[in-house]
Design a protein that fits this description.
The protein is α/β, with parallel strands linked by helices. The protein contains 15 helices and twelve strands. Strands 2-3-4-1-5 form a five-stranded parallel β-sheet. A five-stranded mixed β-sheet has the order 8-9-10-11-12, covered by helices on one side. It has a two-stranded antiparallel sheet with strand order 6-7. Helix 10 crosses helix 14.
């Protein structure tokens, strides 16, 4: 490729890095071992993967270093040019690190990444992808070579950081259970935590809330539509009618979550059969639009009927429906934050959630009692509208400090 063309791409990389702020960083920044030669960062659209990568470049290499190059494959330049050719030029010019954004836009991307990895052993590669469906579908050839990290939306703890309301350490579940009074007290001494929590539930899970102001719900709805209208048919080769059915499924479930679903009734509403219906349900879960709760450890490869269905997070609930039930909001928040912190959550015979194979939780308002889970060992209440808990009653908002 022409030198001038390479310099133009490198200048664009420098500009992106230079203009990236370092004041707020996602939790994953310090968990990634950036020394690995091939790193994959996946996550739903809008969770902040691009910013994470640009911040790492700025911190580790500086804004104008020629060692690290950032490129986004949704750039039109790649419609007529070869990524491998660019990598070769980068290597010749002393490049040691390549950061590839939106990799799913490149046809046969997993083969190309594998070839770059093998052919340029002195170049470290980090790539991101926002199409969770396509990333999962295509990534087989790289599984033995790469380390994969997933970036969920903001935890409530991170939201407080983004709002300038304080910087707090993430806590383990065992620490939360045994020391929740002291932890909560240290927070509420400084901020009106319940006001921040109320705002977070509506518009705080996706970091782009800082950029769009009153257009947050519109942008979130656009992301949902892009997943269902672009990512879904690209992976599963479905027709327009099926796309409309899965959109209808999501909106129906958003109106009525959580529920122990009457699947036959749902299939009738969608005018589809069980096989297609259950595939659509698990596709929505793979795309981080739904959370499926089962009595055993959930497996997306073993597509059994879920015991309960939730929206993935409370922001999606508020964006897709006006029919908001506060009890549903509470349970959705709890499930999202605990699962995003990598704890296994299953559906128990009593109570709402069984976490880590040990702890039983019931979620509710401040008047919630232990009646349903009394006499059960390691059982707790996650209580909304309380700043500080007592005994086995833990403030609901504090479960947003797990990551």
């Amino acid at each position: 490729m022409e030198k001038e063309e390479y310099y133009k791409i490198m200048d664009a990389s420098h500009r992106r890095v230079r203009e990236t702020a370092l004041n707020t960083k996602r939790f994953l920044m310090n968990r990634i071992d950036w020394r690995d030669r091939l790193i994959s960062i996946i996550g739903s659209r809008g969770t902040g993967k691009t910013t994470l990568v640009l911040q790492h470049i700025k911190e580790s290499f500086g804004a104008d270093s020629d060692e690290a190059m950032y490129v986004s494959l949704d750039n039109l330049w790649f419609k007529t040019h070869d990524l491998t050719e660019l990598v070769e030029e980068h290597y010749k010019n002393g490049g040691t690190h390549l950061f590839i954004d939106e990799v799913h836009h490149l046809k046969d991307w997993q083969i190309i990444i594998k070839n770059i990895y093998d052919d340029f052993p002195k170049i470290n590669i980090v790539y991101t992808g926002s199409s969770l469906l396509k990333m999962e579908y295509d990534s087989g050839d790289l599984s033995r070579r790469q380390i994969t990290y997933k970036l969920p939306g903001l935890s409530f703890r991170e939201y407080l950081l983004f709002e300038g309301a304080g910087e707090y350490d993430a806590i383990k579940l065992t620490e939360l259970i045994t020391n929740h009074i002291d932890i909560a007290t240290s927070v509420v001494e400084n901020i009106r935590v319940l006001k921040f929590f109320s705002d977070y539930l509506k518009k705080g899970y996706y970091p782009f809330y800082k950029e769009v102001y009153s257009g947050y719900d519109v942008r979130l709805t656009q992301i949902v539509n892009q997943i269902l209208e672009s990512d879904y048919p690209a992976v599963y080769n479905v027709n327009y009618s099926t796309v409309q059915k899965i959109k209808k499924m999501l909106y129906i479930l958003a109106q009525s979550c959580p529920q122990t679903p009457n699947m036959s009734e749902l299939y009738n509403q969608l005018e589809t059969d069980r096989n297609q219906g259950i595939k659509m349900l698990y596709t929505l879960a793979r795309a981080d639009l739904l959370n499926l709760l089962t009595s055993e450890k959930s497996s997306l490869s073993n597509m059994s009927r879920p015991d309960k269905i939730y929206c993935d997070n409370t922001n999606i609930m508020y964006a897709l429906t006006e029919n908001i039930n506060i009890g549903t909001v509470r349970e959705t928040f709890f499930l999202n934050q605990v699962k995003s912190a990598d704890y296994m959550v299953t559906y128990p015979a009593k109570g709402d959630f069984f976490v880590g194979g040990k702890y039983l939780f019931e979620v509710g308002g401040k008047k919630k009692s232990f009646e349903q889970i009394k006499d059960i060992p390691d059982s707790f209440l996650a209580i909304d509208d309380e700043e500080v808990g007592r005994g086995n009653k833990i403030p609901l908002w504090l479960f947003g400090f797990l990551y």
